[in-house]
Inverse folding.
């Protein structure tokens, strides 16, 4: 074989070796870059998943707290009404005590019974001597107005319970205003 063919084959084999090393190096770099991008995307997805899980956990806690609050919240007028009823209940006034027991919430008094109770409370506001205290007179004076207010609050609470809560996410731009 002539020397020129040997040199040509040597150059061809060197070129093929160089081309194959360049190809595999480039392929290896591309795989590494692809792996890096995939790892970054996976890490970002994991962070987003963790953030979502955190938000869901916080929302569940809020819903639980709201349910507890809904169960425990008593409107102020209803609470005051219960205090006044307790103060006005006596063993020697069975008719009035029966009406006071039906005040509620929710009120189970008919309009006629409510008028009768209001008149009986008005009698209590007049001086009955040692039978009642000044605090009880004040309670008898206040209770009709509180009853009306408690009835309105009860209706409002029932209408609120009928509605469902809708949570909306709002984004807030924290960039300074210019």
């Amino acid at each position: 074989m002539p020397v020129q063919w040997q040199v040509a084959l040597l150059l061809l084999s060197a070129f093929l070796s160089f081309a194959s090393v360049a190809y595999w190096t480039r392929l290896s770099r591309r795989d590494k870059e692809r792996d890096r991008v995939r790892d970054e995307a996976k890490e970002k997805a994991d962070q987003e998943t963790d953030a979502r899980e955190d938000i869901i956990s916080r929302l569940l806690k809020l819903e639980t707290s709201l349910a507890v609050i809904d169960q425990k919240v008593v409107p102020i007028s209803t609470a005051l009404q219960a205090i006044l009823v307790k103060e006005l209940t006596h063993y020697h006034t069975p008719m009035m005590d029966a009406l006071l027991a039906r005040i509620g919430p929710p009120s189970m008094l008919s309009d006629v019974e409510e008028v009768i109770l209001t008149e009986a409370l008005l009698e209590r506001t007049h001086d009955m001597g040692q039978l009642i205290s000044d605090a009880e007179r004040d309670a008898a004076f206040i209770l009709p107005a509180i009853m009306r207010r408690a009835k309105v609050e009860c209706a409002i609470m029932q209408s609120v319970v009928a509605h469902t809560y809708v949570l909306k996410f709002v984004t807030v731009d924290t960039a300074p205003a210019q």
